[in-house]
Amino acid sequence: MRASTTFLTFALVAIADACGDGHGHDHHESHPYPQLTKPSRPLEWGDLNIIHTTDTHGWLLGHQHISFPEPNYSGDLGDFASFVKHMKDIALEKDVDLLLIDSGDLHDGTGLSDGYAAGGIDAHDSNQFLKQLPYDIMAIGNHELYDYINTWDMHTNFAPALNGKYLSSNANITVFDENNNTVSVPVGSRYRKFTTRKGRRITSLGVLFDFTGNDVNTTVQKVEDMVKEQWFAGAIEEEPDVFVLAGHMPVNYDNWPVVFNAIRAVHADTPIIILGGHTHIRDCVQLDGRSMSLESGRYMETIGWLSARLDGLSKSNITFSRRYLDQNRVTYEYHTQQDSLTFNTSHGSGITQGLKKLSDKYNLSAVFGTAPQDYTISRNPYPSNGSSLTLFVNEAMPYALTFNSSRSNVSNIMITNSGSQRFDVYAGTFDKNDQIAASPFTDAFVYIKDIELGVAQQVLPALNSAGADNRKRDVLEKREQELWRRGYVDRRYMDWLDEMDRRHDGAVKRASQNLTLGYVTSDSCPGIGDDTLHAPLASYDIPDFIASDTPSLSNDTLIDLIFVDYIQDQLLEILNQIQSEKTYSDADVDSYTDVLSNAVLGIYAQHAWN
Length: 610
Ligand SMILES: *[C@@H]1O[C@H](CO)[C@@H](O)[C@H](O)[C@H]1NC(C)=O
Ligand SMILES: *[C@@H]1O[C@H](CO)[C@@H](O)[C@H](O)[C@H]1NC(C)=O
Ligand SMILES: *[C@@H]1O[C@H](CO)[C@@H](O)[C@H](O)[C@H]1NC(C)=O
Ligand SMILES: *[C@@H]1O[C@H](CO)[C@@H](O)[C@H](O)[C@H]1NC(C)=O
Ligand SMILES: *[C@@H]1O[C@H](CO)[C@@H](O)[C@H](O)[C@H]1NC(C)=O
Ligand SMILES: *[C@@H]1O[C@H](CO)[C@@H](O)[C@H](O)[C@H]1NC(C)=O
Ligand SMILES: *[C@@H]1O[C@H](CO)[C@@H](O)[C@H](O)[C@H]1NC(C)=O
Ligand SMILES: *[C@@H]1O[C@H](CO)[C@@H](O)[C@H](O)[C@H]1NC(C)=O
Ligand SMILES: *[C@@H]1O[C@H](CO)[C@@H](O)[C@H](O)[C@H]1NC(C)=O
Ligand SMILES: *[C@@H]1O[C@H](CO)[C@@H](O)[C@H](O)[C@H]1NC(C)=O
Ligand SMILES: *[C@@H]1O[C@H](CO)[C@@H](O)[C@H](O)[C@H]1NC(C)=O
Ligand SMILES: *[C@@H]1O[C@H](CO)[C@@H](O)[C@H](O)[C@H]1NC(C)=O
Ligand SMILES: [Zn+2]
Ligand SMILES: [Zn+2]
Fold this sequence. Notes:
- By secondary structure, the protein is α/β, with parallel strands linked by helices.
- It folds into 2 domains: 8-361, Purple Acid Phosphatase, chain A, domain 2 (4-Layer Sandwich); 367-489 and 541-608, 5'-Nucleotidase, C-terminal domain (5'-nucleotidase,  domain 2).
- It has 19 helices and 24 strands.
- The protein is globular, with a radius of gyration of 25 Å.
- The N and C termini lie far apart (62 Å).
- Bound molecules: 2-acetamido-2-deoxy-beta-D-glucopyranose (12 copies) and zinc ion (ZN) (2 copies).
- Residues 55, 57, 105, 143, 278, 280 line the site of one zinc ion.
- One zinc ion (ZN) binds at residues 105, 141-143, 248, 278, 487.
C-alpha cells in the first residue's frame, strides 16, 4: 500500500516533467525571473502530513527582486493557496490527512503589513488574506504583542474569524468585560482538540517562548509556569492519537522540552509533533523516536513539510520525514504535478490580486530610485561597497541627516547600530516596500557638539569591544540575553548563516559547484532537509555598531558626534569611559534633524539613484 503510493508519486512526477518540458514552460516567458531549478525529489507522504509556515512577517507577495537568491522565494500567498488546494486534492486521492499550520509573527516586515496609512493597524489588512487559507492551527508570535493595538486586533478580529484555531496558550490580553471591569483573557484559544478527516484525534497548543518585550496590558506566562496550570493538565489528560504542538519558540535551545516532558510524563508513547518558529532558521530535531520538531525559516522564503507514518498500536519509533521547500511556483508546480497553465486556482489568483490591490492602496510601488547594485547586511564584509551597513552609515546617513540641518557645515562622525537594518537592498527599483523591509525603525538622530575628533573616533571601537575583557563579556552576555527575551533573533539567524558558510568552506566550494545560492541546512534529523539543493550564501561577521568615516582633520578639532537615540545610554557610558574632562549626560544631547531612521534610505535614493 505504502510502496504503491510512493511509486505513484514518482510516476506522476515523471509524466508531469516530461509533459512540462515537452511543451515548454510558459511561465518562464511570462515570469520576469531567471529560470529556477527544480526540487531534487518528490515529497515523502505519510498518513499524517503537515504544511508549515512561520515568521511570514507580511511577506505575502513574496520576494520580488531578481538578484540571487530572491527569485527562489518569489511565490506569493495566492500561489501558496493554490499549492495548498492541490496538495489537499492529492491528500484526498491518497486518502491521508493533510494539515496546515502557522507558528506566528504575522506583523512587522514589509509594506503590506507595515505600510498602512495613519490611523490604521499594523497587518490588519494583510491578515484578511491569511484568514482565507484553510489553517488548522495558527499560534501567536512575539510580533503580535509589541503594540497593544495589534494584540487587540488579533483578539477581536483575527481570532474570532479563525473560530478556535488561533492559539495563545500562554499569552493573554487585558480588556474590559461587559461590566466594565478589566479582565485578562487568552488572546485566542489556549488549546484546540479536533478530529481530522481520517478520524485522527488531535490535541494542539500554541506556545510562545519566554518573551518579555510585550506591551502593557498583554501578559506572557513563562513556559515552565504554563505547564503547571490546571487547564494544561486538563487539556493533555485525555490521550489523542497525536499531539500537534504549534508555537513561536525555536525547536532547539529553548523550552520545547519543558512542554514535551510535561506531556511525556502523562503519555509515554503518544506521537508528538512540534512546529516551532522565531529564530528564522530551518531546523529539525527529534526529542525521541516518536516525535519530530520542525522549524521552517522566515519571510515566505521557506515552506515546511512534515509527514509521519502513525502506526496505531505499535510503540516502536515512528517514521517521519521533513523538507524545507523554497517558496516559488516551480517548487509548487513540481510537487503538485501541475504546469503553469493548470496550477492557479481562482481562489489563489483572487488572493494575489487582492494583495496587489492592497500594495497599490498603500502606494508600496512608489519608487525612490534605482539601486545600481545589491547591498547586503552580512553577505558582504563590513565595511565594503557591497555592504548595506556601509551604504547606510557612510553614504545615506551623511546625506539624509545633513540635508536640512543647520549644522551641516560642522564636521561630524555618525554612529548607529547594525540592527537598524532588517533586510538587504537589491539592485533595481527601490520603492516604499523595499524601504520598509530594509530599514523600518523610527528612531531619531541626536548629537553632542564640540567633541574632540580624537575622542569621537574612539567611541565606535569602544562600543564594539564592550565585551573584550571578562567582566565586560558578562555584561555583553547579559545584554544578549536581555535582547533575546525582548525578541531579537538576528544573532541566531546570522550564526546559522555563518555555520553553513564555514561548513561548506564558503567561496571555494561555491566556485566549484553548479548549484545556485541559497540555504544549505544541516539539522539533526535524518537525511537531507532542503528540497532544492544550493550552495551556501557567503556570510561575514558584522559589528553591533557602525560609523561614518572619520574626517581627516587634526585630533583637537571639535566636531559633532551624531548618533541614533536608540543607543544613547550606551554611548554616554562609553564616552565617559574614554575621556574624563567632562561627564556627559542626557542634558548634552540635542536633536540633530527631524529625519527619522526609516526615511534615510528613501531620501538618499531620491538623491543618488535617479
Ligand atoms: C534560485 O535563484 C537563482 C537565481 O535567480 C536561480 O538561478 C535558481 O534556479 C533558483 N533556485 C530555485 C530553486 O528557485
Ligand atoms: C497614497 O498616495 C495617495 C496619493 O498621493 C495618498 O492620498 C494616500 O494617503 C497614500 N496612502 C498611503 C497609505 O500612504
Ligand atoms: C467604562 O469605563 C470608562 C472609563 O474607564 C467610562 O468612560 C465608560 O463610560 C464606562 N462604560 C460603561 C458602560 O460603564
Ligand atoms: C489568562 O487569562 C485567564 C482567563 O481569564 C486567566 O485565568 C489567567 O490567569 C490569565 N493568565 C495570566 C498569566 O494572566
Ligand atoms: C491598561 O489597562 C488599564 C485598565 O484597563 C487602563 O487603565 C490603562 O489605560 C491601560 N493601559 C494602556 C497603555 O492601554
Ligand atoms: C528510536 O529512536 C531513538 C531516538 O531517536 C533512538 O535512540 C533509538 O535507537 C531508536 N530505536 C530504534 C529501534 O531504531
Ligand atoms: C498564475 O498566477 C500568477 C500570479 O501568482 C500569474 O503571474 C500567472 O500569470 C498566472 N498564470 C495563469 C496561467 O493565469
Ligand atoms: C568602491 O567604491 C569606490 C568609490 O565609488 C570605488 O573607488 C571603488 O573602486 C569601489 N570598489 C569596488 C571593489 O567596487
Ligand atoms: C527640508 O526642509 C523643508 C522646509 O522646512 C521641508 O519642506 C522638507 O520636507 C525637508 N526635507 C527633508 C528631507 O526633511
Ligand atoms: C556653520 O553655519 C552657521 C550658520 O549656518 C554659522 O553660524 C557657523 O559659523 C558655521 N560654522 C562653520 C564651522 O562654518
Ligand atoms: C589621534 O587620536 C587617535 C585616537 O585617540 C590616536 O590613535 C592618534 O594617534 C591621534 N593622532 C595624533 C596625530 O595624535
Ligand atoms: C557544471 O555545468 C557544466 C555545464 O553545464 C558541466 O560541464 C560541469 O560538469 C558541471 N560541473 C559540476 C561540478 O557539476
Ligand atoms: Zn519572526
Ligand atoms: Zn518572533
